[in-house]
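Narrative summary of target 7.
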Amino acid sequence: MNFNNFGYLLLASAAAGSACLPHPFVMWLLIVNLLTLALYGVDKRAAYKARRRVPEFTLLLFGYAGGWIGAILGQQLFRHKTQKQPFKTWFAISVILNLAVVGAVWWLI
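Modeled conformation, tokenized:
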């Protein structure tokens, strides 16, 4: 199993696990942000050692799933994905979409 598939498995496990905890939405955000931060670190290390990289789509998906704060921290902490323009644009779009979805859910509740 490559790390990309393992990341998706972790994301699904985080969703299932956070549903069983006292504050599922807060726990989901905490878990997905930690996973996203770790994913940026793994991708930076893979880039440094010329190994197989985490696809940009996976990084964007984790950010869209609520891990955009962890992604921003990972970008700054690891100095990773801060200059690549197409990625920055798609990342900004994913943050805006995530905030719109969270705002809509918050408003409907």
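DSSP finds four helices and no strands in the chain.
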